[in-house]
Amino acid sequence: MKTLIAPTPTIEWKNGQIRLIDQTKLPLEESYIETNNYRVVCDAIYRLAIRGAPAIGVAGAYACVLAANKIESDNTDGFLKEFLMKADEIGATRPTAVNLMWAVNQMKEKAASFSGDVKDIKSTLLDLANEIKDDDIDRCHNLALHGAELIPDHSNVMTICNTGGLATSGIGTALGVIQYAHAQGKDLKVHVCETRPLLQGARLNTWELKRTKTPFTLMTDSMAARTMEKVEIDGVFVGADRIASNGDTANKIGTYSLAVLAKHHNVPFYVAAPLSTVDYETDSGSDIPVEERSPDEVTRIKGVQFTIEDIDVTTPAFDVTPAELIHGIITEKGVAKYPYKESLEEQRNAK
Length: 351
Description:
This protein is α/β, with parallel strands linked by helices. The chain is built from 11 helices and 16 strands. It has 2 domains: 11-141, Up-down Bundle (Four Helix Bundle (Hemerythrin (Met), subunit A)); 150-349, Rossmann fold (3-Layer(aba) Sandwich).
């Protein structure tokens, strides 16, 4: 079977530059960031011009290449010292999504273990970044194949945040599963949570689903309970920014609420993510750092203030869904089941 990919590339490497679709401009404007400056990529990651755990992992790998290319030292030790500092800067851009540090650590380990000259190190780092991107495409492909089997014909599914091609180098994770099920010819409808405060569902999911002609309806996040009450939802499919070794899952704020609602309404709740999103060194969700964002993301839309000034605002970007609320974790190796400590470890060791 031909590898499943998104219709619009999220990340491309061309002529020594990285090219990213600027997701802050979507859906009203399709524009791109093209740069050979790693700090521009860091800024793009931080302000969510590029987002989604797998996508920022790939972007982080290419940012490491850009950082390496700007180092002028021909001395291997001098190059490595400067490169590791810049790589740490890239890895710290967003603390919750484990894929970013996963990719950056691979780049650091490759540079530290390489025995050639500086020119060869730089070339090898680019090769590794390309491998990380291709690996992400393959993981998303296999994940979609496994996940689509969980979606019956004539079904209604629900999702939050954007987990399609915009969030990865490939077809996506949770939304990729849904879109592949649609491509198989299954009659389905996607109930899209708008995903406050930055509206990734309203802005990005609708843009992707419209392009693939996948039927959907948009709703506010607070409509999820009523929708589950009135519509026979066959499954909730969400992505992940970090999965602890016990299955506790950090994802976009509002995911935990959906999991609780799904449990109450007897709706299967699935997490879809590559194994690169599983942090086997983190025992539980209580150990996952949760990024706090700017209050402006809650009090403003497109720069327009709609609340009174000088108020206290809570701005966690993520929440953590307990493993016991998750019906299954879909990865490129299959569908892991509770207890996840054992099943995710089995997947890690599977050939």
